[in-house]
Design goal:
Blueprint lengths: L27 H23 L7 E7 L6 H9 L2 H4 L2 E7 L8 H10 L3 H22 L2 H4 L5 H6 L3 H9 L7 H8 L5 H11 L6 H4 L3 H19 L2 E7 L5 H13 L4 E7 L1 H10 L1 H8 L3 E4 L6 H15 L7 H17 L6 H17 L7 H11 L14 H10 L3 H21 L18 E4 L5 E7 L4 H13 L6 E6 L10 E5 L2 H15 L5 H13 L4
Parallel strand pairs: 1-4, 1-5, 2-3, 3-4, 7-8, 8-9
Antiparallel strand pairs: 6-7
Helix pairs in contact: 5-8, 9-10, 12-13, 14-15, 16-17, 17-20, 18-19, 19-20, 20-23, 21-23
């Protein structure tokens, strides 16, 4: 059993999306992008269906964003949607896998981008069309199936012969095919129909000699899709870049305005900029795309959290995933996102959660806990550390402390206690003299001690969400502590300096967690030699000694 009562790990393990993984789509920006693409297909389909489309019914869509932002995932996701499959035939091409690039290799990839099921179904439609022609018109159309006198005597029908053709048990009369179709189809369309009948659809890439031939074949293919399926054709070119052959090829496709077609180009901002530098005319066409989908912001925390939760919701068939568990997991994702810039993209975060889910499952945990995340990062990303942590806080402890000290009141209370513990520890190891609790109340001082030189030092912790209040508190503390030689104020108010022996030290959240982690170890008598050295280094970093 997996966490949250799931029967399988909801997160994908593949470094690139698969069709199965792509069934799930989370994140507002991804859903908005999906809506834009569906709007494009719906709009064009309605115009084609009503006969009111212009410019040969062609649309250009561009999708742009950084690596790992979910562009490929979104492209694959749309293939499985009924709004797309009901209205369009899709060919998906990963251009990163095409090498060397040439007009023939690109065209071959576009043919390969269609599924085998589509090709088989189109072949059946074509043979059925020819069968109907033979049954209605007889004559030359019947010769397509080599239907003769003996067939009539033995009781065979044209339908029987057509079935034989589909089972590859009959070689058709291709001259009769050309003669039968020449009034309704173009020569290029007839050539593709012959290849379909022959079960050699993808061999057309070997039959074309020029770029003009390729464009003609693509136009013929999209026309056949419209005729036999009453559907648009959607070409998705993923990883499109500034390669000269690719750019020239796409320029020709755009200029040709393929009928009833949507061309979707997917690239990164850097590739887009390279295209701008390499070919101004193509860049101009991309800038004028009918739909420009920019996934900017798809790697924000809010977007990633929604995607993470969407995977769980999708696989939660028993509806056991509670709102409290959603908040708990979102809080853990936030810590990972905030502390590790390496994981601020969808792909990396999903990889962590896949491994963390496996880890939690092996330990029979009801949820993805801090230990699962800690062990995942240690095992899958060895050497990764919390930025700026003096105490080398384990990921699991870091996450726990951050979550437990989420509000300013508990955070300030924890830091005050930790500072007192750190000064006491410094005294125990002989670095400072015996600390004292401040006698006066309301002066904001947390602890007083003498340093090795006899200087009387007071320490005050001032942490507020409202920094204006922090400045006011610091000012009041400075005025009320004339009984010491030196005052150290630890604050998050983003101020620094001091005068007359006073010192204001800025401490960030990471430093606060270091302090609280030390305090926990100190109270539980868990201090080791290395921890002792780190604790004294921490004390020096905040000017306590």
């Amino acid at each position: 059993m997996y966490p949250y009562k799931l029967d399988r790990n909801p997160y994908p393990s593949s470094p690139t999306p698969t069709l199965i993984d792509a069934q799930i789509l989370g994140g507002k920006r991804h859903k908005d992008a999906k809506a834009a693409l569906l709007s494009c297909i719906s709009d064009l389909y309605s115009k084609v269906s009503s006969g009111s489309a212009t410019d040969k019914d062609f649309r250009l869509v561009t999708m742009i964003q950084d690596v790992g932002s979910g562009k490929t995932h979104l492209a694959l996701h749309t293939r499985g949607l009924s709004q797309v499959s009901d209205n369009a035939i899709v060919s998906y091409i990963d251009m990163a896998q095409i090498s060397p690039r040439s007009m023939h290799s690109l065209y071959s990839a576009m043919l390969a981008g269609f599924t085998d099921d589509y090709i088989a179904t189109l072949r059946q439609h074509v043979v059925k069309y020819l069968q109907n022609k033979a049954e209605r018109e007889g004559g030359i159309a019947k010769k397509i199936f080599n239907f003769g006198f003996m067939d009539s005597i033995t009781g065979k029908t044209v339908a029987d012969k057509a079935a034989q053709l589909l089972r590859n048990e009959l070689v058709p009369n291709y001259a009769a095919v050309s003669e039968t179709l020449r009034k309704e189809f173009t020569p290029v369309e007839i050539a593709i129909i012959k290849l379909l009948i022959e079960n050699k659809f993808r061999a057309d890439a070997q039959n074309v000699a020029t770029l003009e031939d390729i464009i003609a074949s693509l136009a013929a293919l999209t026309s056949l899709n419209l005729r036999f399926f009453k559907k648009l054709t959607l070409f998705q070119l993923d990883e499109f870049d500034s390669d000269k052959e690719s750019v020239d090829f796409v320029k020709a496709v755009i200029n040709s305005h393929l009928p009833a077609t949507v061309l979707m180009l997917i690239f990164t901002p850097s590739s887009y900029d390279e295209i701008r530098k390499a070919n101004v005319s193509v860049f101009d066409r991309l800038e004028k795309a009918n739909y420009k989908i920019d996934l900017a912001g798809s790697n924000t925390l809010e977007e990633i959290v929604d995607i993470v939760l969407e995977y769980l919701r999708h696989h939660d068939s028993t509806k056991s995933f509670t709102a409290e568990e959603e908040r708990d997991l979102a809080a853990k994702v936030r810590v990972i996102y905030d502390e590790f810039s390496d994981f601020r993209n969808v792909r990396s975060m999903l990889n962590i959660l896949y491994h963390a889910t496996e880890n939690a499952s092996k330990r029979d945990c009801a949820s993805i806990d801090e230990q699962a995340i800690d062990e995942t990062i240690k095992n899958v990303y060895p050497g990764l550390r919390i930025r700026g942590s003096v105490m080398d806080v384990p990921i699991s402890d870091f996450i726990k402390i951050r979550r437990h000290c989420n509000d300013m009141q508990s955070l300030e209370s924890g830091v005050r206690t930790a500072v007192r513990d750190l000064v006491n520890y410094a005294h125990e190891v002989g670095v400072v003299a015996m600390p004292q609790s401040p006698n006066g109340k309301g002066n904001g001082v947390d602890i007083i001690f003498n340093d090795p030189y006899g200087t009387r030092v007071a320490v005050a912790v001032v942490i507020n969400k409202d920094h204006a209040k922090s400045f006011e508190q610091i000012s009041n503390t400075l005025k009320s502590t004339g009984f010491v030689d030196k005052l150290v104020i630890l604050t998050n108010a983003n101020t620094a300096g001091g005068s007359n022996g006073n010192m204001v030290v800025n401490i960030d959240r990471c430093k606060m967690i270091d302090l609280i982690y030390f305090s926990n170890m100190y109270k539980n008598n868990e201090m080791q030699h290395d921890d002792s050295q780190r604790a004294l280094l921490l004390a020096k970093s905040i000017r306590l000694c």
